[in-house]
Amino acid sequence: MLKTISKIGNSQGLIFDSALLDLAGLRVGDQVNITVSPGGSMVITPIRKAPPLAAVQATIAKTLDDYQDTLKKLA
């Protein structure tokens, strides 16, 4: 996708249309990390919050319960 750097106030920036944001799973206000590789390539990586500990524990408990027989055979 070809984009043009635009003047925004006293700065420059890229404007991402809603289709591009949807593809990347981003919304206005999300934080991203930008890294610059040798040669000038930029990589924009969304910063995702980790799920709450309770949700992780619930998923582990459900998995252990669902696969209890299989896990016993593997032990």
From TrEMBL:
MF terms in GO: DNA binding
Residue spans crossing the bilayer: none
SMART domains: SpoVT_AbrB
Top-level taxon: Bacteria
SpoVT-AbrB domain: residues covered: 6-52
InterPro entries: SpoVT-AbrB_dom, SpoVT-AbrB_sf
Protein name as it appears in the record: SpoVT-AbrB domain-containing protein
Species of provenance: Stagnimonas aquatica
